[in-house]
Amino acid sequence: MNKARVNPLNTAAMHGALILYTLIALFPVFVILINSFKTRKAIFREPLALPDGDSFSMIGYQTVMKQGDFFLYFQNSLIVTVASLFFVLLFGAMAAFALSEYRFKGNTLMGLYLALGIMIPIRIGTVAILEMMVATGLVNSLWALILVYTAQGLPLAVFILSEFMRQVSDDLKNAGRIDGLSEYAIFFKLVLPLVRPAMATVAVFNMIPIWNDLWFPLILAPAEETKTLTLGSQVFIGQFVTDWNAVLSALSMAILPVLVLYVIFSRQLIRGITSGAVK
Amino acid sequence: MQKPRIRWHIAVFLAPAVLVYTAVMIFPLFNTLRLSLFSKIDQERVYVGLQNFQTLFGDPIWSEQFWNALGNNFWFFLIHMLVQNPIGIALAAILSHPRLRFAALYRSAIVIPTILSFVIVGFAWKLILSPIWGIAPSMLDAVGLKSLFAPWLGKEEYALTTLALISVWQFVGIPMMLIYAALLSIPEEVLEAGEIDGITGMSAFWKIKLPLILPSIGIISILTFVGNFNAFDLIYASQGALAGPDYSTDILGTFMYRTFFGFQLQLGDPHMGSAIAGAMFAIILIGVCLYLFGIQTRMRRYQL
After folding, report:
1. Contact state of B13 with A98 under an 8 Å Cβ cutoff
2. Which of these, A100, A81, A53, lies nearest to A228 by C-alpha position?
3. Would you call A48 and B135 a contact, using CB atoms and an 8 Å cutoff?
4. Average pLDDT over chain B, rounded to whole?
5. Could you say which DSSP state residue B99 is in?
6. Percent over 90 (pLDDT), chain A
7. Distances (CA, A) of A262 to A92, B50, B115
8. Smallest CA–CA separation between A159 and chain B, in Å?
């Protein structure tokens, strides 16, 4: 495109539209965060004002710390998310390697079978999943959640990773074979390091839905000691509806970890999407 | 290497994924469909054929709830298609403009709501729209539109639309990013060729870019469809399992949850719950098939 043809009016309009939408996107988060640091009176008198010396208060956070076991919830969420991601990536990469590297009978069929789950939500099978977890005694354990999220994440992981693994050069793998590496060593030592960017993309895609899910924690692991942060804040807020300080603080505490993770991973996320990982 | 031998490593590579996926996803899916053909009579599980579906569609109490939830779900989906996707496409079109400053900053900010959980989003909006707190009415007052304010989430006629718009607010980042990626992959030469023919600015968007990103719009539509028809969290977080006021925000996800898990006075019934899950499965399957065979195969793809 030509430099001469950029209309300053056009540029202003574009920035105007984007700024407007950015404000719409950030406004609710901003209001929740600033009000969580204010006294009850100030929350109602001037909801849009920043907290100052007069109106600053941490009372909400104190209530949350006293009443809710947010550290435990946070720890549960972290364990579930990290463990699920680990299994999705390991199992997904192994299956993707088998599908993209070897020719065997039923290869295409197996690929289609594993891809079914991309379009069909796992929630449809909830009734039977709950029965199974009750029968195996896994209900109210973090393992129930880890298994479900692993199964949920695998189809897309296999799909994306096998696309990437097809691009790994055959010469490299054959050189490894000539050097006497086993198929396992080729996978773990040669191929895995090469598809690391794709693995990161898959991880980021899976991380947010797992962390934020409410359905399965509610149904499979509602016990106090296995509550995730999402379920824990839902229950906590439900009990403290009238205590605005506590509700706003609980919301802020649920927002912050995700926001921090986002700041760390947003580059990866955006690069992952724009590199055409989703086609 | 001539004689056929079992290559065990292939099985080892495939086994964990296939086992977990089959045991936790595919098997329960079919088991749920099977359970919908049973019922509990005198504490025993009895095969009743299609009787649960007969109840679901024939019994006035059940069918009224079902059609209400299904209708609401279609309205929910329609608002996403009409509001979320056009806004997403428009934002992506602006963002993909070459030499736009701060593009990365805008992009990151607009995606922030998408990463928040439904619980946060539901409650945050509930507080903001609450007549007690008064942020929404006082903001409308500032632009002289106070008379427009109503407790939107509490009124039967507005609640579902309000929730759909909140969900749009949350997820606009997804179509935006996918379309943005599609727009970036359009080669510069194509646009330059258009420019030589005098097609620039808006008409370049309508005549060149839009036809090229149609496949991405198709994918976004089917993702929105599947996502909307198993939505649950936002409604549950902000309106509870009864999807009030008076079931006006009830969608298939909340209906299924209430039925199979039970809520307050209503006892949980896994078999009716499975029947609803079966109906949801059928709807999603029809939608996906329509997309795969009706739309995707007919869409013109351009070699770039």
Report:
1. yes
2. A81
3. yes
4. 87
5. T
6. 44
7. 24, 47, 8
8. 12
Does A150 have pLDDT greater than 50?
Answer: yes
What is the distance in angstroms between the Cα of A139 and the nearest Cα belonging to chain B? 13
Q: What is the model's pLDDT at position A276?
A: 53
Residue B169 lies in a domain: yes
Considering the domain boundaries, does residue B233 fall inside one? yes
Domains and CATH numbers, chain A: 8-60 (no CATH), 68-239 (1.10.3720.10)
Which residues between 47 and 66 in chain B have a beta carbon less than 8 angstroms from any beta carbon of chain A? Answer: none
Give A139's strand partners.
none
Contacts of B114 in chain A (CB under 8 A): 208
Residue numbers of the domain that contains B129:
51-296
Quick one: what percent of chain B has pLDDT higher than 70? Answer: 97
Contact B108 A270 (CB under 8 A): yes
Structural domain includes residue B197? yes
| CATH number assigned to the domain comprising residue B245 | 1.10.3720.10
Structural domain count of chain B: 1
Q: pLDDT higher for A25 or B41?
A: A25
Q: What's the gap in Å between the CA of B205 and the closest CA on chain A?
A: 14
pLDDT digit string (tens) for A42-101? Answer: 888 777 778 887 888 888 888 888 877 888 998 999 999 999 999 999 999 999 999 999
Phi, psi (rounded to 5 degrees) for B40: -100, 115
* Cβ <8 Å between A276 and B181: yes
Look at residue B177 in the predicted model and tell me its pLDDT.
87
Give me the mean pLDDT over the B42-51 stretch: 84
Residue B193 sits at the chain A interface (C-beta within 8 Å): no
User: What is the spatial distance between Cα A32 and Cα A112, in angstroms, rounded to a whole number?
Assistant: 45
The mean per-residue pLDDT over the stretch A111-123 comes to 90
pLDDT in tens, B217-228: 988 999 899 999
**Least Cα separation, residue A257 to chain B (angstroms):** 10
Torsion of the alpha carbons at B200, B203, B209 and B212, rounded to the nearest 10: -130
Residue B106 domain-assigned (yes or no): yes
Cβ contacts of A251 on chain B, cutoff 8 Å: 120, 123-124
Interface test with B, best of A127, A218, A219 (most B CBs within 10 A): A127
Q: CB-based contacts of B6: which residues, under 8 Å, 6+ apart?
A: none
Q: How long a stretch of residues is chain B? A: 304
